[in-house]
Specification:
With 313 residues, the protein is mostly helical. The protein is built from twelve helices and four strands; from the N terminus they run αββαααβααααβαααα. It folds into two domains: 177 residues, no CATH class; 102 residues, no CATH class. 57% of the residues lie in helices and 6% in strands.
């Protein structure tokens, strides 16, 4: 029997589980990042930015003297700090598939809320909103005398309330979204492991037709051949998605529809020129899975790793 603590953690995990249907028509389950995960990652990123700003100040002192002596130097510092704290997130989330150094350490990432590619426009929108969400009111609260000389007391009180409400926003909606996520159409989830799955022979009773890791296919020779150009379209993440579809043992209408949708998407995406009859769509997917897995395994032996279809080839 599970302990009360284990049962509680399971209930929390169930509440944070979400399912998104990808453009390929495949439902993918994610675990939402909790407010604590997001806060921890944000604080780590702020500490990294603070260290970078300290370096910036030291360099500015060496090049143009103390920022306190020259108003233009102080203005330059403010602009540089704004650019750093804003585009730090944009740069890393664009380059690292929705992650920043802080997010990587905690194990979370940003994804598109509709299951598609995380677009630069969405990343820019969610991070520019942070300036209004946090930094402007926080600056007024901490350095109000410099930003707004003679500011009334109610202005600081309003700034404090603004920061408090928006920082706590993820705690008061079911998907833990902040305002930037709502505007950018994004979600923050726990980072899934993008490694090739263990040997599927361990689960032969569930997927007897799939090939063993590093071994020979369990079926006859492939009915559908694939070229390197076909296989270069997808990566490890898509392999795992396809594996999830093929592992399904139940013969149901929903499973048949999922197989058909995925087969049609892949057929069009890789520009496959051979006709695939409806009754052979699952065979097509299994042959593609076998070929793609062998292709990715071979590339990894040569130090070439492709996480997903959006990664550079």
């Amino acid at each position: 029997m599970s302990s009360p603590a284990t049962q509680y953690l399971q209930r929390v995990a169930d509440r944070r589980a979400r399912e998104i249907v990808t453009p390929e028509g495949v439902p993918i389950r994610f675990t939402l990042a909790g407010p604590g995960d997001r806060a921890g990652a944000f604080m780590l990123d702020v500490l990294i930015q603070a260290a970078m700003i300290v370096v910036l100040v030291l360099v500015a002192d060496l090049l143009i003297g103390s920022a306190g002596e020259d108003s233009w130097a102080a203005s330059l510092f403010i602009v540089a700090a704004f650019v750093l704290r804003t585009f730090y997130f944009v740069f890393f989330e664009t380059r690292w598939q929705g992650a920043t150094p802080g997010k990587r350490i905690v194990g979370i990432r940003v994804i598109d809320g509709r299951g598609g590619q995380l677009e630069p426009g969405s990343i820019l929108a969610r991070n520019l909103v942070r300036e209004v969400e946090v930094w402007l009111p926080l600056t007024l609260l901490v350095a109000g005398a410099q930003v707004w000389p003679g500011a009334p007391g109610w202005a600081r009180l309003l700034a404090a309330a603004w920061v408090l409400v928006l920082l706590l926003m993820p705690m008061f909606n079911k998907d833990h979204l902040r305002v930037g996520d709502m505007i950018g159409g994004t979600m923050v989830v726990m980072q899934p492991k993008t490694v090739l799955a263990p040997d599927l022979a361990d689960a032969a009773t569930h997927a007897p037709q799939l090939p063993a890791w590093g071994g020979k296919p369990a079926t006859a020779a492939p009915r559908f051949p694939f070229t390197t150009a076909h296989l270069d379209v997808y990566g490890i993440y898509e392999l795992q998605v396809l594996e999830g579809v093929l592992r399904t043992e139940a013969v149901t209408v929903a499973h048949a529809e999922a197989v058909a949708a995925v087969a049609e998407k892949i057929h069009a995406k890789i520009d496959y020129d051979q006709l695939v009859p409806t009754h052979e769509q699952e065979r097509f997917l299994r042959d593609f899975y076998t070929a793609l897995r062998a292709h990715l395994e071979k590339k990894m032996l040569f130090g070439q790793r492709r996480e997903d279809k959006y990664s550079k080839k």
